[in-house]
Amino acid sequence: SRFFRHGSGHDMTIDGRGARVYDVLVGRWFLRGFYRRVAAEIATTVPTGGAVLDAGTGLGKLLVELARQRPDLRIAGIDLSQDMVTIAQRNATRSGFGSRIDVRRAGVADMPFADGSFDLAVSTLSMHHWGAVPPAVAELARVLRPGGSLWIYDLRSLPSDTLAAAAKVAFDGQPLRRTLPRTGWLRLVARWAITRPTATTEVADSL
């Protein structure tokens, strides 16, 4: 089968043999340190007993690292590729965290979670696979609690005008911040971050 397939909204997925090759070459070698660093950043941010969503989780490597670093967190991941979901579930089980990690097949623009389910939603090297950015950002904002944050890690060379415009609408005018995190040898990655306003913030802004 082909390495890449397009799903609803023309989102790109990695399936079949491509998913298996990605697991061995990318997840186990090239991106291992990257996922550890991202997990460490999340671990110092999310409150005790909080909930984290990994949108476009792929192999589930970030989920495993989060489970290892923060035993108190509720952790979930979604991916449009059923092959990736299967691999992520297998990786979680092999790591001993199968009972703590919830991985489901879903697109980022249509997720099976209630409003305000998570304290932080993160996407790592997934945004450039999205068929349309605005509906994805709107859906990610929906599942965040007031005061919850969205972190998107992707290639720093990507144009971010569409992301900024979508974030401004979905997050009620809150600023989108772009930083260049320490990611080891993977120096081509930027992080875009935005926080959902709390009720207090919304009242203050209206005065």
- SS strand fraction: 15-25%
The count of helical stretches stands at 7
Percent of residues in helices comes to 25-40%
Overall mean confidence score, pLDDT? 84
Shape field: globular
N- to C-terminal separation? 58 Å
**What is the number of beta strands?**
9
Main sheet overview: 7 strands, mixed
Strand order of the largest sheet: 5-4-3-6-7-9-8
Unreliable parts:
1-10, 17-22
**Secondary-structure element series:** EEHHEHEHEEHEHEEH
**Rg, please?**
16 Å
The class by helix and strand makeup works out as: alpha/beta
Oligomer: single chain
Lay out the secondary structure.
Layout (H helix, E strand, L loop, with lengths): L3 E3 L5 E3 L1 H15 L1 H12 L7 E5 L5 H9 L4 E6 L2 H13 L6 E5 L12 E7 L8 H10 L1 E12 L5 H10 L6 E3 L9 E7 L3 H8 L1
Parallel strand pairs: 3-4, 3-6, 4-5, 6-7
Antiparallel strand pairs: 1-2, 7-9, 8-9
Helix pairs in contact: 2-3, 5-6
